[in-house]
Write a structure and sequence with these properties.
Layout: E1 13-17, H1 23-32, E2 36-41, H2 44-51, E3 57-61, H3 67-74, E4 79-82, H4 89-99, E5 102-105, H5 111-114, H6 117-123, E6 126-128, H7 137-151, E7 155-167, H8 185-190, E8 195-199, E9 202-206, E10 216-218, E11 226-230, H9 237-240, E12 248-256, H10 259-268, H11 287-295, H12 302-312, H13 318-331, H14 345-356, E13 365-376, E14 382-392, H15 403-420, E15 428-430, H16 435-449, E16 454-457
């Protein structure tokens, strides 16, 4: 038997690393397809919970930092899905290379992952990445329109792509207009990243400390009040999407109106700092005591805290200032409430937001994704096209999927099934950014799962 192929008996078996909230749809779809799934998590209880109601799944406890234990489990299956934090992907891929087993992740390909391309090819394995929502579904519909336009002799002059995972509008009832299905830490840290993009043919950057204040209103449908800001580094997508002609190219994030100004204020006040402070390790400290120290207030009296906030943060006008300060009060920063002693401002804030901004029973999440293409045809005519996805999740507590879990987990499962069924056979470190890889997955998601973006020509 060819050593490059998974050994007989393991080809329709999968190891799923992680038990986070997006993993359930992946596990369910694989179970429906009769795939045997081993769910591995550090805590056995989390893995067992994910397996509930599934006929072909069983749970194990596994520490992925233990390379020999990881390899041992990967050796028993045909493919490993890594839905744990992206920092672990490279070591999972290394273990899979040693065992000659395929890998699927929903994360961006990092430099550490790309460095394993040759070894993955030599091992004869497929390592398929970036197949969730963003990245994932966004690629499938960007590549579709770009390929169609190029085939018809047109150019993509501008490409704007924005995505937001949000609460449904009626559930966006807090000062951030946001709720968390998992730890707020990642969302708040992303607000500190420097962004790079192309504008009018030139590479532009927005430093992390000004990222949120660069947000601008962005119209998709008149019924939604969105603001948008650029996300990390969009510049490689000129090459990845094969659009060297693009003069404007931005991939970014959508939030409800008012959210970016609020997050910018948290940053300006020092609330997103990871610097250790002894007073934030003491659970007897109240929020107003801690907040007074963080913002450099002369006392913890209300008017002094307000003055310190006003002097450290910049507001567009008095209305915004009042709205943001009311929001800081709502979080509890002016109160006698005790802090969760996590050692630094960011983690103490996260602990508080986690308690106050969870989805309550009956509430829904909402995903909006839109690509906008400015096209120039050979005769000089211009055209604007959009590809839009607007999806509401099932109510919290109903047993159904959130929009985010469905739109990350189902595409991931489809990629897994296509590899196991021999429909994806390319080897090495891959992502669906070419028509050959993206189109078969796009069609399957549309035809079998009803997951698609709606395409329109606006002008």
């Amino acid at each position: 038997m060819d050593a490059m192929l998974p050994s007989r008996g393991t080809s329709k078996t999968v190891l799923l690393l992680g038990a986070g909230f997006v993993t359930r749809p992946t596990a369910v779809e694989l179970d429906k397809a009769g795939i045997s799934v081993t769910v591995a998590c550090r805590t056995l209880e989390s893995a067992q919970k994910l397996c509930e109601g599934l006929r072909n799944a069983h749970a194990i406890s596994l520490n992925v930092a233990d390379q020999s234990a990881l390899e041992h489990e990967i050796g028993k299956v045909g493919l490993v899905i890594s839905l744990i934090p992206y920092t672990f992907h490279a070591q999972v891929i290394k273990a899979a290379i040693n065992q000659k087993k395929h890998v699927v992740t929903t994360s961006y390909v990092s430099e550490a992952m790309m460095a394993l391309d040759k070894e993955a090819k030599d091992a004869g394995i497929t390592v398929f990445n970036e197949i969730g929502l963003d990245p994932g579904l966004d690629h499938l519909y960007a590549v579709k329109t770009i390929s169609e336009v190029h085939k018809a002799g047109g150019k993509i002059v501008s490409f704007w792509s924005y995505c937001g995972g949000l609460p449904a509008p009626e559930n966006s009832d807090n000062p951030l207009g946001y709720k968390f299905s998992w730890s707020p830490r990642g969302v708040l840290l992303a607000a500190r990243n420097t962004a790079h993009f192309f504008k009018d043919g030139k590479k532009e950057s927005v430093p992390g400390e000004k990222l949120m204040s660069s947000a601008r209103p962005y119209l998709i449908y008149p019924g939604y009040a969105f603001e948008a800001y650029p996300n990390r580094d969009s510049t490689p997508f000129r090459e990845r999407y094969n659009i060297p002609e693009a003069q404007n190219l931005v991939r970014g994030t959508l939030r409800y109106q008012g959210n970016p100004a609020f997050v910018q204020t948290l940053r300006d006040l020092g609330m997103l700092s990871e610097e250790e402070q002894d007073y934030l390790k003491d659970k007897s400290v109240s929020w107003k005591e801690a907040f007074a120290k963080i913002v450099g207030s002369t006392s913890r009296a209300d008017e002094d805290l307000t003055w310190a906030v006003s002097s450290k943060a910049k507001f567009a006008d008095n209305d915004e200032k009042e709205r943001v300060i009311a929001g800081l009060r709502w979080i509890g920063l002016f109160s006698d409430e005790s802090i969760e002693p996590r050692g630094n401002p960011l983690d103490c804030l996260c602990a508080t937001l986690e308690k106050k901004m969870q989805y309550e029973k009956g509430e829904r999440d909402f995903v909006m994704l839109q690509h906008k293409f400015e096209i120039e045809w050979a005769d000089g005519k211009k055209e604007i096209r959009t590809s839009t996805l607007s999806e509401y999740g099932e109510p919290e507590g109903s047993g159904g999927y959130s929009a985010m879990a469905k739109l990350v987990g189902v595409p991931c499962a489809v990629a897994v099934l296509m590899i196991l069924n021999g429909e994806i056979t390319d080897k090495g470190i891959l992502a669906p950014v070419t028509p050959e890889l993206s189109e078969p997955i796009r069609l399957k998601l549309k035809e079998q799962y009803g997951i698609e973006l709606t395409e329109k020509t606006l002008a």
